[in-house]
Amino acid sequence: MCQFSPHPQRPTLADYLEIPNIYPAGRLDADSEGLVLLTDDGQLQHDISDPAHKQPKTYIAQVEGLPDACALTRLSNPLDLGEFITQPCKASRIEIPQWLWPRDPPIRDRRTHPTSWLALTLTEGKNRQVRRMTAAVGLPTLRLVRISIGPFTLATHPLLPGEWREVDPEEFKRAKS
Prior knowledge:
Elements: E1 23-24, E2 33-34, E3 38-39, H1 42-49, E4 57-64, H2 69-76, E5 90-94, E6 115-122, H3 129-136, E7 141-149, E8 152-153, H4 169-176
């Protein structure tokens, strides 16, 4: 869980890190994996997580089914999810990245239902948005991994689950300029 306070059923960040006075800049839902930025700089946390700053976040999603051009167009354009209409985003079909770690436990394997991978870059982050978007176009998400937030990306600096590295806050500030 993307929190330091105890959770009754799941491990939290406190189970992996013993660095005082840091906080997550944004969250991942309990069923998602990937990049989480932690900071002790309140302004930096605000600049990363506040929707007004529209930091792009890229997710890769393993979905059930094979997306066609229509599904990718629907994902890229504003999509009515009932409670809200999404902002335009970038959506494309990709091959699974070679650096991606195996999932534990593995995604169910159903030979009669093919899966594929999508990359989606959003500038908003509503509750379970990517999962809701892919379901709305008939491609339920099986695995969801956030691979980038603003200039920070696992594509060029891969980390395994539980690993971390320190970055210079100026890197984020330079990327915003």
